[in-house]
């Protein structure tokens, strides 16, 4: 039996940010990326809140891949401020941090009703509609994905005007993170007709619009479509789960200091080949996932005479997209330091990652090490 629950209310379209003007008589705790403050984008939020709320404060000491101590600091400020509404604005790190802060504040200080509104300013993580939050133990160099329905934001506001100034590199990284979310959800163990519908649409939108958004940030239509794709991919993987592409990216991220989206992009072709059971021009032991990869190729109008050729077509198209976005093919360009023990540690952490449980193909330590060695 499948349970399909999409509980986050989404506001999108022109002037979606006006939704905030409907809130009155609240004490608002704002979690924001430092850039949101520096660029004065925070004034767009405050302008709406001035129309009828009691008070608000901003927590902007957000670090990339938010470390545990970052979340703890936010929880302490929540306890002092005593808000009845949290607004998270920024990229995935700000939204993930806000979700974790709300979760721990609610548990520790017994908040019964502390709604969260997520306003993404990048198009990639889908965190605004998922029950996931990734936090980092900096000392151990380990990322921990938190998974709970209580982490779902009550509302998400998708305002395209907030993503028009995103730099090209971040546009590429987050866009390919969206693609990874959608493709992994499409082949995940818990995939169903509902998650497939969101994943297929997201994949189609990425291939149609990401390069345009990358080349011209002021292309409002491409930006809007990528913003929608990110949220659709988030809904898809929140229903179906992800896979080892994300597990390995989580484990590598704390070690190699490469952005999450770029890690996913580098890993994607090799992970797809492994999950499908193909290597080079030979089919080692074709896996069920190959049929779904081939179906994606057909949906994209790519050659797919059989499941193996369809999978290869998809991999080729992903590599073409990465090339157009100036994404590295391997880890070699980053000059990362790795040893047999580091690869073993990454593999073990990847297997323990919650995303691995829904990977379509059974995975062992040596499989992950092989994937990593291919890219070193």
How would you describe what is shown here?
- By secondary structure, this protein is an alpha/beta fold.
- It has two domains: 9-162, Rossmann fold, CATH 3.40.50; 168-375, Dehydroquinate synthase-like - alpha domain (Dehydroquinate synthase-like, alpha domain, Up-down Bundle), CATH 1.20.1090.10.
- It contains 13 helices and ten strands.
- It has helices at 34-38, 42-49, 68-81, 92-109, 168-187, 193-215, 220-240, 244-256, 260-276, 289-299, 307-324, 340-352, 365-375, and strands at 9-12, 27-32, 55-59, 85-90, 116-120, 132-137, 142-147, 155-158, 278-279, 282-283.
- The strands form three sheets. Strands 1-8-5-4-2-3 form a six-stranded parallel β-sheet, with helices on both faces.
- The model has no long low-confidence stretch (mean pLDDT 92).
Portion in helices = 40-55%
Structural class: alpha/beta
Radius of gyration: 20 Å
Task: Pick out the low-confidence regions.
Answer: none
How are the strands ordered across the major sheet? 1-8-5-4-2-3
The profile of the biggest β sheet is: 6 strands, parallel
CATH-defined fold name of the largest domain: Dehydroquinate synthase-like, alpha domain
Mean pLDDT: 92
Instruction: Give the CA-CA distance, first to last residue.
Output: 42 Å
What's the name of the CATH homologous superfamily of the largest domain? Dehydroquinate synthase-like - alpha domain
Describe what is shown at a glance.
The chain is of the alpha/beta class and 376 residues long.
What are its keywords?
6-stranded parallel beta sheet; 10 strands; alpha/beta; 376 residues; Rossmann fold; 2 domains; Dehydroquinate synthase-like, alpha domain
């Amino acid at each position: 039996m499948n349970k399909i629950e999409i509980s986050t209310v989404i506001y999108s379209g022109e002037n979606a940010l006006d939704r905030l003007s409907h809130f009155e008589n609240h004490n608002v705790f704002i979690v924001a990326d430092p850039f949101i403050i520096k660029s004065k984008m925070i004034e767009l939020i405050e302008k709406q809140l001035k129309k009828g709320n009691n008070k608000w404060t901003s927590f902007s000491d957000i670090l990339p891949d938010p470390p545990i101590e970052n979340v703890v600091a936010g929880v302490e400020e929540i306890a002092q401020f005593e808000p009845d509404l949290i607004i998270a604005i920024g990229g995935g790190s700000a939204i993930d941090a806000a979700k974790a802060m709300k979760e721990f504040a609610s548990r520790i200080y017994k908040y019964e009703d502390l709604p969260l509104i997520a306003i993404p300013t990048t198009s990639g993580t889908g965190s605004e509609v998922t029950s996931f939050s990734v936090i980092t133990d900096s000392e151990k160099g380990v990322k921990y994905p938190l998974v709970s329905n209580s982490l779902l934001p009550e509302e998400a506001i998708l305002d395209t005007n907030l993503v028009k100034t995103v730099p090209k590199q971040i546009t590429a990284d987050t866009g390919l993170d969206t693609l990874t979310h959608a493709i992994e959800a499409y082949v995940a163990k818990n995939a169903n007709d509902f998650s497939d519908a969101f994943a297929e649409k997201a994949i189609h939108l990425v291939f149609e619009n990401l390069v345009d958004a990358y080349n011209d940030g002021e292309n409002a239509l491409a930006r809007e479509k990528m913003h929608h794709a990110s949220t659709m991919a988030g809904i898809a993987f929140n229903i179906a789960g992800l896979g080892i592409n994300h597990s390995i990216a989580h484990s590598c991220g704390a070690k190699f200091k490469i952005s999450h989206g770029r890690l996913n992009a580098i890993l994607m072709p090799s992970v797809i080949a492994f999950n499908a059971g193909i290597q080079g021009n030979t089919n080692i032991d074709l896996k069920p996932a190959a049929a779904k990869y081939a179906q994606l190729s057909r949906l994209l109008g790519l050659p797919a005479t059989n499941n193996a050729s369809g999978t290869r077509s998809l991999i080729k198209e992903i590599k073409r997209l990465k090339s157009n976005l100036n994404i590295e093919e391997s880890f070699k360009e980053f000059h990362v330091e790795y040893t047999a023990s580091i690869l073993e540690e990454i593999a073990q952490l990847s297997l323990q990652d919650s995303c691995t449980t829904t990977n379509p193909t059974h995975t062992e330590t040596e499989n992950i090490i092989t994937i990593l060695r291919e890219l070193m």
